[in-house]
Amino acid sequence: MNDTATGTAGVSPAVPTVEPILDVSGVTLQYKTKEHLITATYRVDFQVFPSDRFVLLGPSGCGKSTLLKGVAGYMQPVEGAMKLKGREITEPGPDRVMVFQEFDQLLPWKTVKQNITFALMNGGKCSSKQEADDVAMEYISKVKLERFEDTYPHMLSGGMKQRVAIARGMAMEPDILLMDEPFAALDALTRRQMQEELLQLWDDTKFTVLFVTHSIEEAVIIGSRILILSPHPGQVKAELNAHQLGHSDVGDAEFAQLQEKIHAMIFADRVLEDETLPNV
Ligand SMILES: Nc1ncnc2c1ncn2[C@@H]1O[C@H](COP(=O)(O)OP(=O)(O)OP(=O)(O)O)[C@@H](O)[C@H]1O
Ligand SMILES: [Mg+2]
Predict the structure, then answer these.
(1) Residue whose C-alpha is closest to residue 229's, from 239, 219, 220, 221
(2) Using CA positions, which residue lies closest to atom 28 of ligand 1?
(3) Backbone dihedral angles phi then psi of residue 187, each to the nearest 5 degrees
(4) Pick from 144, 135, 174: which is nearest to 162 by CA?
(5) What separation in Å is there between the alpha carbon of 101 and the centre of ligand 1?
(6) What are the extents of the domains in the chain?
(7) Which atom of ligand 1 is nearest to the CA of 38?
(8) Which CATH class is domain 1-6+16-95+177-190+208-280?
(9) With left for phi above 0 and alpha for psi between -120 and 50, is residue 148 left, alpha or beta?
(10) E strands along the chain, which residues?
(11) What are the pLDDT tens digits along the chain (280 aa)?
(12) Which atom of ligand 1 sits closest to the CA of residue 234?
């Protein structure tokens, strides 16, 4: 299923072995409330390889954010395991950085540059202020915000705030960048622009990203691989390849076909859900 060579014992040594950065295996994640035990994901499997733009796609409530929380180390699976570079994930760490949908993820009392240098110093990435300043400026220029380095978040547009959050995340040079619907609250034009910019950044640095969305179009544009989840509880429905498709292909036959195929998969679930008793 993977387009990357995974390597198996006994296979010809001429085949290069690529280890996954992230290995999610049989992961069930649950929330315990006073009244309920909610199974958010059930025995989910996927592997993210270096430089993948791996997208988690599925309807609201299928456990996309919960999976990211698990990978970030904020939740432990009740069965299965999540491994980062072969080590079990047991707590949060600077090797995984999260970018959220909300515009208020920046520290409002710090400027654009200070938001980034603060993360770099606190996360142990830089030991001197000068080094942190240099790294911050490098990433501020990557997201084209040079003129706004000394600006406070309340003076920025939603798209600009998301650029700062992305620059801050990338500056940490994590093993994997975790993005939870980072463009969902933006207007359509800005969203399109941000998707393009993210792909340009990826062309530059080939970072590894686990990207959550419930937009089929966004999944096909951003993703090199797409994991489709079905809801209640979230289970893997399919894994698809989309690395050959991007913005310039929107509206093309191949793009439309893949969108249609994904739509049918997700819609099939909705029909089944409607026919069964409501889930609690
Ligand atoms: N803090 C929580 N306490 C209890 N249940 C929760 C909590 N957070 C999420 N859930 C439940 O877990 C399931 C998965 O939620 P999750 O937020 O991961 O879905 P999602 O796919 O990210 O949805 P959306 O697209 O709406 O963001 C849902 O049934 C939800 O109600
Ligand atoms: Mg979510």
Answers:
(1) 239
(2) 61
(3) -65, 160
(4) 144
(5) 15
(6) 1-6+16-95+177-190+208-280, 101-173
(7) 5
(8) alpha beta
(9) alpha
(10) 22-32, 37-48, 53-57, 79-84, 87-88, 96-99, 176-180, 209-213, 225-230, 235-241
(11) 444 444 444 555 566 678 999 999 999 999 999 999 999 999 999 999 999 999 999 999 999 999 999 999 999 999 999 999 999 999 999 999 999 988 889 999 999 999 999 999 999 999 999 999 999 999 999 999 999 999 999 999 999 999 999 999 999 999 999 999 999 999 999 999 999 999 999 999 999 999 999 999 999 999 999 999 999 899 999 999 988 887 888 888 999 999 999 999 988 866 555 555 454 4
(12) 14
Atom of ligand 1 nearest to the CA of 67: 18
β-strand pairing of 53-57 with 37-48: unpaired
**Mutation to probe ligand 1, out of 27, 29, 31, 71 (largest number of atoms < 8 A from CB):** 31
| 73 phi, psi to nearest 5 deg | 95, 15
Per residue in 69-91, is it b (16+ CB within 10 Å) or e — as a string? bbbbbebebeebebebeeeebee
pTM, two decimal places: 0.89
- Which two three-digit tokens encode residue 198? 């993210």
Give the closest residue (by CA) to ligand 1 atom 14: 63
Please count the other Cβ atoms lying within 10 Å of the Cβ belonging to residue 223: 25
Residues 97 and 124: their CA atoms lie apart, in Å, by: 13
How far is 191 from 184, CA to CA, in rounded Å?
A: 8
Sign of CA dihedral 130, 155, 203, 179: positive
